[in-house]
Amino acid sequence: MTDGHFIQNRNLNKTTFHCDISICNSMCCRNCPVLTQDEVAELIANVKKKYDVDLERKRYFRSAKGEHGLYFSVKMIKGQCIFLNREKRCRIYDCRPTLCELYPAIDVDAVDERCPGIQKNEFHEEMLDVLKKRYAQEIDERIKKEHTFMFV
């Protein structure tokens, strides 16, 4: 199913989409995904298995302290994710964090209004609802409770 430049995966329980990054210059990769220690370990293992790349925790992640625990955020370079290549494509796309996969959903009841697809109303409400539902089910409870992270 397509919505303009956006393609929806047909399995609504695993709804994601692929967009034309020429429209937004990889807007989704300007958010700073915060992960638990287990999620970072899983990401590192998956990237090694899929791409045969060793991700060093200190090189690719920053410690982030929240009210409910210590987490890790993906490092940003000039306001964009460290995993973007020169063409603004994700170098670990098939293993990307769930927070990235669920974009433009940024909370259980919110979407990123900066996303051109949201601004142009190019997403079916059903798709956005499923992304928000997945956010509610798949994102760590502690991370969902956080409002502010302090980088340490």
Structure notes:
The chain has 152 residues and is α+β, with helices and mostly antiparallel strands. The protein has one domain. The chain has seven helices and eleven strands. The strands form four sheets. The chain has a four-stranded antiparallel β-sheet. A three-stranded antiparallel β-sheet has the order 1-2-3, with no helix packed on it. β5 (61-66) and β6 form a beta hairpin. The chain is globular and about 40 Å long.
Give the overall shape.
globular
Helix content: 25-40%
Helix/strand structural class:
alpha+beta
Counting DSSP H or I runs of 4 or more residues, the number of helices is 7
Strand content: 15-25%
Count of extended strands: 11
Main β-sheet description: 4 strands, antiparallel
Q: How far apart, in Å, are the first and last alpha carbons?
A: 43 Å
Strand order of the largest sheet: 4-6-5-11
Low-confidence sequence ranges: 1-12
Alpha carbon gyration radius: 15 Å
Mean pLDDT value? 88
What's the structural domain tally?
A: 1
Sketch the topology as an H/E string, one letter per element.
EEEHEHHEEEEHEEHHHE
